[in-house]
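Field log, afternoon session.

UNIT: design team B
ACTIVITY: writing a sequence onto a fixed backbone
BACKBONE:
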């Protein structure tokens, strides 16, 4: 089965900033959506957890896949304000020797 591409917009474009998206791929096996890489291999977190969710009767697979992409992004520590475009950076205090 060929993986389907999906993306989530985190920040829209404005002024000179092009915006920010995160993306991923998914497949559907039976009634379950699985997040996979471009080759169809299951996406795994550092602890080996995969990203999958069973579809309810009225849910669209792309919507669920977008939620899984976002949860993968958040699980990798991106909820904090650190990183490009996510607010001010917190630096440790400067000590003089």
């Amino acid at each position: 089965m060929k993986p389907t591409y999906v993306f989530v917009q985190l920040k829209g474009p404005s002024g000179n900033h092009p915006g920010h998206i995160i993306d991923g791929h998914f497949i559907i096996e039976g009634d379950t959506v699985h997040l996979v890489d471009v080759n169809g291999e299951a996406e795994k977190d550092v602890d080996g957890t995969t990203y999958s969710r069973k579809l309810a009767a009225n849910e669209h697979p792309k919507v669920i896949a977008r939620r899984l992409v976002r949860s993968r992004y958040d699980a990798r520590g991106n909820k904090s304000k650190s990183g490009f475009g996510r607010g001010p950076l917190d630096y440790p205090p400067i000590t003089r020797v």
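LOG NOTE: The CA atoms of residues 8 and 22 lie 5 Å apart.
NEXT ACTIVITY: expression trials, pending approval
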